[in-house]
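Hi L.,

As promised, F-box domain-containing protein:
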Amino acid sequence: MGGGGAKICSELPEEIVLMILAKLPCGSLPKMRGVCKAWKEVLCSRDALAKIYPDMEISSSPAFLLQFRGGLPNFILEGSSVDFRKLPSSDMGRVVEIACKGIYCCSYGRRSGARFRLWVCNPGTKTYKRIPYPSIITRDWDFIGMSFNFSTKKCDLVLGLNFHYGHKILEMYNSKSNAWTSVSMTVEDGIHPIGVGVFSKGKYYWMQGRGPFSNGEIVQLNVQQNCWIKIACPQYSWKTPVDAYLLRHQTWALTGCEGRIILVNMENSSPCMWKLREGDEYYTWSPVHIKLPKPVFQVAVNFKGWVLAVGEQLLVYNAEGAIVRTAEWDALHPNQMLSLNGNIKIVSAFAFECNNVCWPLF
């Protein structure tokens, strides 16, 4: 927009600006070149967002926006409270920790702090349920995975691993009993999770590193049988091995959904992907032939097998590997994006949901 046009637009009443913006495609507003700086300032106000995106749930914290499309409009969590928007917003922290099939696990407050809270919510019904404290809360823990069963209406969480007196504690939450149970493992078990894991077909998967010079591994946990196995990472010709240092610094990523377990190497010069294939007594990795962008910061896969890759562009691939959607992004740092089990992607202060399609907001 030229200087004269920008001056005229900046002098328009805010009500007129909102009427114009509300008629534009929601995915294009913030990045549209025709939206001048003055209009973008209007766009970021809470009143403007509420008018332009009436289906978006906006918490009382301006740092958290959530657009919800589809999901579970008729399901209310047992024992949940109504009106998800009235949750406290002070010291919000990460907010969304992990999600599965339209159900979110969220937090606010600092981990191990007195104000820390956990809750599960369904944005489709605007309801949430408080989760009791795990038996041990420390700073050194991650959500390994989350599962939701439509038939039993049961939601499970696996929280790991807390370090306590030389042992590693695996905390498991059951929504039916609304309680946590603990599984203690000795240090010799060598299980150390890195980042958020994946739930698929009754099993949890997460990455782990065993030392600065040893190869990383994938751990598979079968909760019902109370057993786990370790799966070696794929052999890769790149000079840098899959070690704990790289896993911790997000050079590698694990994602998946509904039977698809994907491991991604996000090296800037040669990003690539592998899919885990499970046999009767063995596990193998096969390459996924998708040309990822360079650089690539985050990769996710949804229940249809669609792959979403984020770099300087946002790319969505279908199950056959063809690009079905492209959007321009400013380059995003990996820490600004949170992968949620391939169902939902939260980017910094802004959100979009990708069950069937991707809706970038900002």
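The two ends are 19 Å apart (CA to CA).

Thanks again for sending the construct details.

K.
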